[in-house]
């Protein structure tokens, strides 16, 4: 059975990679760790986004934020300390990977860790509207 995609329309040219990324994101959708995304619009039309991820128990050295190929990847990996003996372990040392697909022109400004919250600031400056006339040649 073949799958019909919104990106297979004949007037959408060059969007194949977006479909692959969306499929990858859908497969990796997990509820851990929980996160919020906030959006504000500046007076100049630029957009600012704040991604807040609840990473209680993770230290700065156990977290990694990477911006690569229009994707923001956030990874966390806690290390088990072999000398510790737990009588009860209700808080698992667990790893995660959270991926966000970014639109063209998005800029990751910074990331901060405070009180168990990893906060990542992004910005999309207002893009100028470009139009140009294409000359038609005759052969």
The rounded distance between the terminal residues' Cα atoms is 44 Å
Strand tally: 7
From the alpha carbons, calculate the radius of gyration and give it in angstroms. 21 Å
Strand content: 35-45%
Structural class: mainly beta
Contiguous uncertain segments of 5+ residues: none
Helix content: under 10%
* Shape descriptor: elongated
Largest sheet: 4 strands, antiparallel
Largest sheet, order of strands side by side? Answer: 1-2-7-6
Q: How many helices?
A: 1
Overall mean confidence score, pLDDT: 86
Order of helices and strands: HEEEEEEE
Protein architecture, described:
A four-stranded antiparallel β-sheet has the order 1-2-7-6, with no helix packed on it. Strands 3-4-5 form a three-stranded antiparallel β-sheet, with helices on one face. It has one helix and seven strands. The protein is mostly beta strands. The chain has one helix at 16-27; strands at 35-41, 47-54, 63-68, 71-76, 96-101, 107-114, 117-124. It is 9% helix and 35% strand.
How are the elements arranged and paired?
Elements: H1 16-27, E1 35-41, E2 47-54, E3 63-68, E4 71-76, E5 96-101, E6 107-114, E7 117-124
Antiparallel strand pairs: 1-2, 2-7, 3-4, 4-5, 6-7
Describe what is shown at a glance.
The protein is mainly beta. The chain is 9% helix and 35% strand.
What brief labels describe this structure?
139 residues; mainly beta; 1 helix; 7 strands; 9% helix
